[in-house]
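Posting for a labmate who doesn't have an account.
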Amino acid sequence: MPGWTHAFGARVMKRVILLALTLLAAALYLSLAVRADLRPLPTDLRPQSLEYRRPQFLDRHGIPLSVTYDNPWNVHEWLSLHEIPELLQEAFIASEDRRFYRHHGVDWLARSHALLQNLTALKGVRGASTITEQVVRILHPRPRTVWSRLLEGIEAARLEERFEKSEILEFYLNQVPYGRQRRGVLQAARLYFDRDPDTLSEEEMLTLAVLVRAPARLSREGGRQLAKPLARLRDVLCRSGRLAESAGKKWVSGLPLTEARLPVEAGHFLRQFVLQAADGKDTLPTGPAKIVTTLDSGLQGRIQEILDQQLRDLKNADVHNGAVLVVNHRTDEILAWVGGGASAGDNPAGWIDGVTAPRQPGSTLKPFLYGLALDRGWTAATVIDDSPLSRPVGSGMHAFRNYSRNHYGPLRLREALGNSLNIPAIRTIEFVGAQDFLDRLHELGFASLDRTAAHYGEGLALGNGEVTLLELVRAYCTLARAGVHQPLRFTLAGRYLGQSRRRIYSEEAATLVADILADREARRLEFGSSNILTFPGQTAVKTGTSNDHRDSWAVGFNHLFTVGIWMGNLDGRATDGLTGTTGPGLILRSIFAELNRFEEARPLFLSPRLAVAKICRQSGLRAQSSCPTVLEKFLPNALPAAACGHLHETAGSVVVADSQENGPVRLLQPSAGLQLIMDP
């Protein structure tokens, strides 16, 4: 008997030791497995520490210009805990984790109750994840298994050791997932109620707290499924004294989901910025998740209204599209980039960006031609012959005409440019040379003019090529900056768009061109003494109209802003007689009225090196006692040396400028292959 007892005891001892070793091995294995599956916790729960795929673009005042839900985190629409209503915080705690402030990551009491309920029902009817465990699940998504619950509990305890309760709650309320890829209470409030959290009613705040259980299903089924959980949550908050007993008598019966709405539409502006970054002309910041652009959303919205109203007024003229670009040429910042007209649903052209679409510029290139002529020795008093002019084109002759079909005979360069006359412009391009003019336009950034000078010919002076509104405004900014070409900026802190700063025109020539464009008397012959292009403050203005009235333009600048407008049809159809004055010119006036509301009126800059002399109004030479006189501005080395020798009892005769093109003498007429008459 004693031997048997001893043997039995030995066997038991072996089994105990074996069991202990097994348990120890299992514990060691479990410990190693847990250690292997545990993931590192973040060192910071604030939004700037989170990864993102796409940045959010803001206007210069911090107003969103874009919204994206493709990021793994909500990094754009983050609320600090003090910005979230206390009732909304308490509703989430009451609904999701009543002992949030008493546990250390895992609520063992809630887990026990949930386990008992699930065993009684023989299925999973209740979870017991704390808010901290849900934060872990957001940080480290895993398949829903018993093993994952164990890991979440351990990581939740570690998370609470590292962060304050307030930090955990703030992260949770900004990252808790809802339907349609929305995260956090701010995005959810805007999705379901089209308002921010601090404007929600008590019922709506409770609804946000309940929806996190099953956002997709509950938002579809609305009040029918929300009523019971809302009532339970209301009762909990009423018992705690947070809600009055009378609260919640009217519950939300449905959730009219809303799409994200932005204060202004700036999609074309943002797409162009991203394209420039992709081409290496600019860089997207890699640090911040938010990029502050130069755009002014308030100005953008007001200009959008002005453009849309003008398009409605011109609907009977078969005008359906327009675009506006506004630049502060002192800082080179793009302030407004507006497109208007038929949407993609009405017209496929609605997707085209009118600011970057190449169109014929009409007369808007003439100031750059005359600026080149001034730097080549002509003056604002140089007399140009405005008489009928024909030139060989192909096997025939082309007769150039002014827009009004009038001819004014010899007149000064100031009047030729001010009245935008075509024939003097042709004589001017013959003086400077088509190739040199094209080279100058390329220096100004007109990359769309990608054909040869022989292809364009003298017609380049009248806008027979195609340019974009972006190129045109950028070039007019060069005139506004007294001849200095400076790239434009899309972001306040970013690099410039395009090439570096360089001088294109002399200061004297550029400011003299600006002075002519702002001279009301200089445009009197074609536009009248009082016209739509006369602005309250000194403003240089130029309009343009292409062949068949397909494209109409107006560009202007004052001491601070440069504005360009295009109107027409992006599908290429002609308008019913629209001109730069009758369409874009009206918009230009309205925009400058808006820009000047808060700006002190100042004159345009005029080079102090320009000299003023009294000249003969008819001949452009130094005035004599019998001459009709006018004061004119000259480059320092271009003052008229000769005195006018004409008698002025009649209209008188004047000396006109030699428009011979630089280079060898060439025969203009007859041209090779010219057919004058055919003998039948």
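Reply:
Got it, the structure tokens are right above this. The first strand starts at residue 56 and ends at 58.
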